[in-house]
Amino acid sequence: MSTWSLTQMMRMQAPWRPVFARFLSSAQNRTVPPPRGSIDTPKAFLKAISRTRRDLVSNSTCVSAVGEDWNEMFSLTTEKLKGAGVPVKERKYILWSLEKYRQGLHPSEFAYDIKKPKKVRGWGPRVQKGYRVRGELRPGEKRA
């Protein structure tokens, strides 16, 4: 019986390495969760994740991109939504919400509204509620 050298053993294992690496780096097949409660259609899902300033149900591009099939909705990708004309923020929010629903959370636990628009605009922290709080006054400005 001959003894194997370390290099001979490495040569024997070399063809298997790329195969295992491929399996490790490939994406896992994502499961489609069953409909839960009142959320049984894609339109009901969009309604559940919608909020006052983010009304996805009335947005026809979102509704048409999601479609009518439950299984098809969970196979959506960024490219498909972009091709349908869905804006970037809605795309990210829809895909994020689908993943949270897939993990078992109810939309009432994770759905959120978009940020409110700023009320005070100006030169940053120097100006609050339209009045300069600190710093030098500019020509024509009044100190509060």
TrEMBL record:
Main location: mitochondrion
Compartment(s) of residence: Mitochondrion
Residues covered by the Small ribosomal subunit protein mS41 SAM domain: 42-104
Coiled coil, from the record: none
Superkingdom, taxonomy of origin: Eukaryota
GO cellular component: mitochondrion
Name of the protein in its database record: Small ribosomal subunit protein mS41
Annotated organism of origin: Malassezia pachydermatis
